[in-house]
Amino acid sequence: MDATARPAMNTKRRLGNWMPQKEAVAADFRLRIAAAAREHTRCAPRANVVRALAELVQGDTVLRMNLSRAIDEARHAGFALGYGNIDELMNIVDYLTTYAPPFNASVPIATPLNLVLDWPMCMPSGYAVFRDPAFNTQLRKVLSHWCGFLSGPHSRTHLTSAEPDGWFCEAAQEKMHLDDYLCERSLAHWGFASWNDFFTRRLREGARPVDEPSNPAIIVNACEAAPYDLREQCQLHDCFWIKAQPYSLREILAGTAPDVAERFVGGSVYQGYLSAFNYHRWHAPVAGTIREAYNVDGTYYSEIEAEGTDARGLNDSQGYTTAVAARAVLVIEADERSLGLVACVFVGMAEVSSCRIVAMQGQHVAKGDELGYFQYGGSTYCLIFQPGVLRALEPRPPYRDNVPPLKVNSRLALAAL
């Protein structure tokens, strides 16, 4: 490999505190997880869903060839994966379906499967694997199986105040502002029934007040998320797979009627990304009636080739993921007629990333009402506005990686009423 390319590949920009910034730390984790997986394999048979995934890959010549080559390409590039073939990778996947992450303030590893797949998925042979429909269908079953574990009592190993990896230790309380959330500290695991119960924890009354709830000109943040991108003059169809990653409305709003999607042509898309340490429920950016609410099946670890093999993980592919990843779409018809329709797209980028909608079609929501939530996994979201709606956006580009998330229900934009 060309020596000049190596430094770029070793400097992935991992946003949102989902994975460690330094590749050496990531490699050490992969090696430790691989060792734990080998021990696990000696003690327990593979889960049926993982066995089915392995059989799919081994039984499909093209999938087997591409995944094998992607692993080889990553290893030949000098990356310590912790596995050297598909079978060893499947052992790690199986181990992770009973894994709940520990807290780590300085070196977070909140999405371990993403870290395990981090390099093969951006190798030349890896793109086709992680975009393959059959592969993603079976991978979704594996992630749902993992979700079942994370939604049960055995996932609460680290829901303690034990130092240094308990999610209620002093460092965690300071990092995550846990006083903002509903919990019962006198109970075991602070009253949380599972890891997912903790991950989707609710805010205390008044912790995130809605900015001017009766003023329709104020549009609020739908998620506790840091700014990622703002695009104007968005098109119905665009080349979302190129390096610039323009937003392609018809692909993003895959289940929306064409005549409704067309109303957003020429409009604006704002996108933000969520941190592992923050609140993961979604709230209505405007008051109105839910006209559409649906989930879209899609990919989980697909990156875009245009970013190259130094793509820096899923983070630099966030515009692309809005069109291809598993996601929830809600379209709100605003009470304020001049706002028209506002589309809210909540994207599961990695791990379980279940997108759970709680505001159903036909339901009226006030500004700040809950729309749904992400279960465990990396996440991004975007709001799509019709032409001429936005007058000014509160966070101004260019956006930096090191800014704190904008509070949910805080002011995002001023509408041109």
Automatic annotation (TrEMBL):
Asked if the keyword 4Fe-4S belongs to this entry, the reply reads no
Signal sequence interval, chain numbering: none
The alphabetized UniProt keywords are:
Decarboxylase, Lyase, Pyruvate, Zymogen
Name it: Phosphatidylserine decarboxylase proenzyme 2
Q: What is its EC number?
A: 4.1.1.65
Q: GO terms for molecular function, please?
A: phosphatidylserine decarboxylase activity
Positions of the L-tryptophan decarboxylase PsiD-like domain: 48-176
At the highest ranks, the source species' classification is: Bacteria, Pseudomonadati, Pseudomonadota, Betaproteobacteria, Burkholderiales
Root EC class = lyase
Pfam name, any one: PSDC
